[in-house]
Design goal:
Strand content: under 5%
Distance between the termini: 45 Å
Radius of gyration: 22 Å
Structural class: mainly alpha
Bound molecules: aspartic acid
Order of helices and strands: HHHHHHHHHHHHHHHHHH
Number of helices: 18
Helix content: over 70%
Number of strands: 0
Length: 408
C-alpha cells in the first residue's frame, strides 16, 4: 500500500511538471484542486495543534518532564536557527553575490511594498489576544500555541475534575488524526495540481527560460546554504539518533514533498506528525515538539532573512562591519521565528531585518519574482529541521529517563 502511494506521488510530480510546461493554461484552470488540498490541510491544523499540545502536555506526567522536553526543544531551536544564520552570513561574505549589481535595481526599479514594521509592543499584544476564537479565525498560530500550553498546565493542576476535559481533547485529536490519514490519499492529486500550477505560472511568465542575471549567484549561494543546513541535521539523524539514513529519508520525503508543494510548514504539520509516528518518535514528545517547532523553528527562513539583508547591503555598498552583521544575525533570528510557517511569511518579517541595516523596504521587490520558488525550498528546510528536532529531543529525553531510572 505504502509503495503504491509512493509511486502515485512520483507519478503526480512528473505529470504535474510536464502538464505545467506543455498545458499551462489548462493546469492553471484546475489550480483550485491544489487550493482545495491546502484548505483541507489547514482546516485540520488549528484544532490539531490545540488538541495535540493539550494531550501531549497533560500526558507528560508533571511539570518536570514538560520542563526538560521544553528546554531541549528551545535549545535545539535556538542552536539550529543560529547555525542557519551563521551559514548564510559566512557564504555571503565569501561569495559576495551582491557586489557588482547596480544599486539602481533596488532604488529605481523595485516595487515599493506597503509593509510597515510592527512595533514591539503590538507584537507582544498580538501574542495575547482578548479573544482566542477570533485569533484562531484569523489563523494566528502563536496565540493558539501559548493558550494551549497554559490551558494544559491549568488542566494538570486542577487534577481529577479536569480529566473529562483532557479525555475530550485526546479523543478529538485521534479523530483529527484519522481524518489526516484519509486526507493523505489525496496527496498525489494535490501535489499534481500545486506543482503543475507553479510550473505553469513560471513558464507563462517565461521565468523558466529568462536569464536570472545577477540573481543567479545569490540564488545558488542561498540554496547551497540550505543544503548545508540540511546536511548537518542529517548527520545528527545518522550519528546521534542512529537512524537508518535511507529509511529516514524515505519516510521524511512525504513531509518534504508536501512542504515543497504547499510552501507552508504549518499546512505540512499533519504530515510531519505522521512521519514522526512512522519513525517511532514517542507520541507525547512528537505531539508537543512538532507544533511548537513548526511555529518557531524556521531556520531556512532565518537564513533567507540574513542572506537577503546582506545581499542588499552589498548591492547598495552599505556598512558590513561586524556590529552591523551582528545586528543582521539577531534580527534574522527573530524575523525567522516570527514568520510562523505560512507561505511567504518570511517576506513580511524581512522588513524588520532591513530596517535594522537601513535598506529601503522596496528592495524586497527584487526578490519577488523568485520568492515563490525559494519559499518552497526554505519550507522544506524548515520542515526537515522540525522532524530532526523532534527526533533529537526524543533521544535526549529517553537518555535522561534511563539515567534517572538507573539512579533511582
Ligand atoms: N513558507 C515558510 C514556511 O512555511 C515560511 C517562509 O519562509 O516564508 O516554513
Amino acid at each position: 500500500m505504502k509503495n503504491t502511494m509512493f509511486l502515485f506521488i512520483l507519478l503526480s510530480i512528473v505529470l504535474g511538471i510536464l502538464g505545467g510546461i506543455f498545458y499551462p493554461h489548462e493546469i492553471i484552470a484546475i489550480s483550485w484542486v491544489g487550493q482545495l488540498f491546502i484548505n483541507l490541510l489547514k482546516l485540520i491544523v488549528l484544532p490539531l495543534i490545540f488538541c495535540a499540545l493539550v494531550s501531549a502536555i497533560t500526558s507528560l506526567g508533571g511539570v518536570n518532564r514538560l520542563g526538560s522536553i521544553g528546554i531541549y526543544t528551545l535549545t535545539y531551536v535556538m542552536l539550529s536557527v543560529s547555525i542557519a544564520v551563521v551559514i548564510g552570513l559566512v557564504l555571503l561574505n565569501v561569495f559576495k553575490p551582491g557586489v557588482g549589481i547596480p544599486p539602481s535595481l533596488i532604488l529605481v526599479n523595485a516595487t515599493p511594498l506597503d509593509l510597515k514594521p510592527v512595533p514591539f509592543s503590538s507584537y507582544v499584544l498580538s501574542l495575547f489576544p482578548p479573544n482566542i476564537i477570533a485569533a484562531a479565525a484569523k489563523y494566528e498560530i502563536m496565540p493558539i500555541v501559548f493558550f494551549s500550553i497554559v490551558f494544559s498546565i491549568a488542566c494538570i493542576s486542577v487534577g481529577t475534575t479536569a480529566r473529562p476535559v483532557i479525555d475530550f481533547f485526546v479523543g478529538l485529536r485521534d479523530v483529527l488524526i484519522k481524518m489526516i490519514i484519509w486526507l493523505m490519499y489525496l496527496t498525489p492529486i494535490g501535489l499534481f495540481s500545486l506543482l503543475g500550477t507553479a510550473v505553469a505560472e513560471a513558464s507563462i511568465q517565461h521565468l523558466l527560460l529568462k536569464s536570472l542575471n545577477g540573481m543567479i549567484i545569490f540564488i545558488c549561494v542561498f540554496l547551497f546554504g540550505l543544503f548545508l543546513q540540511f546536511l548537518w541535521q542529517f548527520l545528527l539523524v545518522v550519528f546521534v539518533a542512529k537512524r537508518n539514513p535511507k529509511k529516514f529519508l524515505a519516510s521524511a520525503s512525504n513531509a518534504l514533498l508536501t512542504a515543497f508543494a504547499t510552501s507552508s510548514s504549518m499546512a505540512t504539520l499533519p504530515v510531519t506528525m505522521l512521519v514522526a509516528k512512522e519513525q517511532n518518535i514517542s507520541d507525547d514528545v512528537a505531539r508537543f515538539v512538532l507544533p511548537l517547532a513548526t511555529t518557531i523553528n524556521l531556520a531556512g527562513t532565518a537564513m533567507y532573512e540574513a542572506v537577503s539583508a546582506l545581499f542588499f547591503c552589498q548591492i547598495l555598498g552599505l556598512d558590513l562591519s561586524i556590529p552591523a552583521q551582528l545586528g543582521v544575525f539577531l534580527t534574522a533570528i527573530l524575523a525567522g521565528m516570527g514568520a510562523t510557517g505560512i507561505p511567504e511569511g518570511g517576506l513580511i518579517t524581512m522588513v524588520m531585518v532591513l530596517r535594522n541595516v537601513n535598506v529601503p523596504t522596496s528592495a524586497i521587490g527584487l526578490l519577488l519574482p523568485f520568492d515563490r520558488i525559494l519559499d518552497r525550498f526554505r519550507t522544506m528546510t524548515n520542515v526537515w529541521g522540525d522532524l530532526v528536532c523532534a527526533m533529537i529531543v526524543d533521544q535526549f529525553q529517553q537518555r535522561r529517563e534511563m539515567r534517572e531510572g538507573h539512579s533511582r
